[in-house]
Amino acid sequence: MESGYRFGPRRNIRPVRYYFQLFHQDRLLLYLQKRGNILEINYGTSGKTDVFEAVREATAKIKSPALLIVFSSHEALPSVTDAIKTLFPNVPCIGTGATSYFGTSASDSELIVIGFGKDVRVKTGVMRHLSVAPVYDLKDLKNAVSELSPGNDNSVCLEFCTNSEEQLVTSMNIALEARGVPLLGGSVMGAPEGITSKVMVDGVLYEDACCYALIKSTHGKIRTYSENIYTVIPGTPRHIATEVNGKSRELIKLDGRPAADVYGEELGLSRDQIVDNVLRAPLGRIVGDQVFITSMYDLKSNGSLVNYKRINENDTISILRLQDYDQINSNTRDLIRRDNSQISFIFSVNCIYRHLLFTGEGYLNRFLGNMSHLGPHIGVVGGGEQYKNQHVNQTMVCAVFE
Questions:
Q1: Left, alpha or beta for 314 (phi > 0: left; psi -120 to 50: alpha)?
Q2: Which of 56, 221, 272, 366 sits between 20 and 30 A of 64, alpha carbons compared?
Q3: Which has the closest alpha carbon to 39: 371, 368, 375, 378?
């Protein structure tokens, strides 16, 4: 088969101890799988230049899968889709272009394939026309949930979407929330100029869409977690969003004043410093005792802040502050250990702004290493994160398969 794209060279040279640890981890997983004590989830990567050979290498350990999840570069996704369809006909699969995490490394060019075995029941599907009719395929999702018959803490819906996240989350939860199925996923990001973000479902590529996989474990629990490294400092003012543009996700006024002026005065920043301060002090939408992060990425001449998450009129808004992210992640991992006696696999979505923060602070490899110490871990970088009934920013969300 002639591939239409060739992967670039590997961007990370991993230390010998990484492969040593991986070797022993794989042997332990194989031993536990044979004993029936762990879910049959295998995965592989490849940096080979020929796409067909890359797919062969990445799937070498995957036998008779019930589900495939695929991540590649955006440029390679069409050729990868063709290769997966050829090598695994009739196998349910979803995928997209992404910057991915494997071990202690991040790459936007490497191919990663995850294969779920016989211990799960799966329904894959697509939500099309998100920008104009997000409920267009809702009936198919409802039918899939009904057929899967999810139980208590044994199911999850993993998804990746190209746009219109708030509408998508609301639409999907019409089918999911009543049956207790948590939604967990990420917004596709990082497509080079000239390439439109796409998602793949069962060998077909879609734009303006969401791919999803409903997964029910017949062998153990599936638990989901979110991690927020920002907080409302006691005594911090709470503001009211008095003017917004929901379609463009603009926060125009807080407390009747230009949002940029309120933000700048509270932190002692000039207007041209505000957007660059998002890694340290994003906005937070306060709902009861919950905080949902909103990342600003642009400032208009009228003082409005343009965000990656929509803010509604009359929402309560506070300016959040960055906390000790290493300690917070340690707390997250402790919680995961307490909840899960034997971890088969962890899948995470980490926000691009957290990725940039951790990279800039020299912390990314430590973060990924810590996650891998919990158990086998693969993740992707998201332009936004979807968790249960919310679209959020600057958050890490993960699913743990026990």
A1: left
A2: 221
A3: 375
Q: CA of 18: how far to CAs of 5, 9, 59, 94, 122, in Å?
A: 29, 19, 20, 28, 32
CA 133 to mean position of chain CA atoms: 23
C-alpha dihedral sign at 329, 227, 33, 219: positive
**What kind and span of H or E run contains 67?**
strand 67-72
Q: Are 25 and 54 in contact (CB under 8 A)?
A: no
Find, among 297, 398, 393, the residue nearest to 351 by Cα. 393
The pLDDT-based confidence of 196 (bands split at 50, 70, 90) is: very high
The DSSP code sequence of 228-253 is --EE--TT---EEEEEEETTTTEEEE
Tokens of 143: 């039918």
Phi, psi of 358 (to 5 degrees): -65, -40
Burial string for 248-282 (b: 16+ CB within 10 Å, else e) reads ebbbbbbeeebbbebbbeeeeeeeeebeeebbebb
pLDDT grade for 26, boundaries at 50, 70 and 90: low
Instruction: Judge whether 233 and 261 are in contact, CB under 8 Å.
Output: no
Per-residue pLDDT for 17 more than 50? no
For 156-194, the pLDDT digits (tens) are 999 999 999 999 999 999 999 999 999 999 999 999 999
Look at residues 216, 226, 225 and name the one whose alpha carbon lies nearest to residue 152.
Answer: 216
Greatest pairwise CA separation for the chain in angstroms: 64
Cα separation, 391 vs 384, in Å, equals 7
Do 256 and 244 touch, CB atoms closer than 8 A?
no
